[in-house]
Amino acid sequence: MSLLFTPLQINSMRLENRIALTAMVTRLSSEDGFVNQGITDRYVRFARGEPGLIVLEAMAVHGSKSGPLLRISSDEFLPGLTELARRIHGTSPTKVVPQIIHFLKVARSGWRQTVDMLSRDEIRTIIGQYAAAAYRARAAGLDGVELHMAHAYTLASFLSKRSNTRTDEYGRTLEGRLRMACETITAVRRAVGPDFAVGVRFVGDECIKGGYSTHEARVIALRLAQLGADYISLSAGGKFEDHVPRDGQPPYPYTGYSGDRCMPSHDYADGINLYIPTAVKEYLIAHGLQTPVLAAGKIATRDMAEAVLANGQADLIGMARGLLADPDLPRKWRDGQDERVVGCIYCNVCKNLDENFRQVRCFLWPKDSLHAPEIHEWSVPAWPGGADLQAEVRGTSLRLTWNRAAAAAGVQGYDIFRSEDGKSWTRLWAGNMVGYSDFSATAGTTWHYMVQAYDAAGHRSALSNVAVAAMPMPDFSLPQTSESASD
Amino acid sequence: MSLLFTPLQINSMRLENRIALTAMVTRLSSEDGFVNQGITDRYVRFARGEPGLIVLEAMAVHGSKSGPLLRISSDEFLPGLTELARRIHGTSPTKVVPQIIHFLKVARSGWRQTVDMLSRDEIRTIIGQYAAAAYRARAAGLDGVELHMAHAYTLASFLSKRSNTRTDEYGRTLEGRLRMACETITAVRRAVGPDFAVGVRFVGDECIKGGYSTHEARVIALRLAQLGADYISLSAGGKFEDHVPRDGQPPYPYTGYSGDRCMPSHDYADGINLYIPTAVKEYLIAHGLQTPVLAAGKIATRDMAEAVLANGQADLIGMARGLLADPDLPRKWRDGQDERVVGCIYCNVCKNLDENFRQVRCFLWPKDSLHAPEIHEWSVPAWPGGADLQAEVRGTSLRLTWNRAAAAAGVQGYDIFRSEDGKSWTRLWAGNMVGYSDFSATAGTTWHYMVQAYDAAGHRSALSNVAVAAMPMPDFSLPQTSESASD
Question: Is pTM beyond 0.90 here?
Answer without folding.
Answer: yes
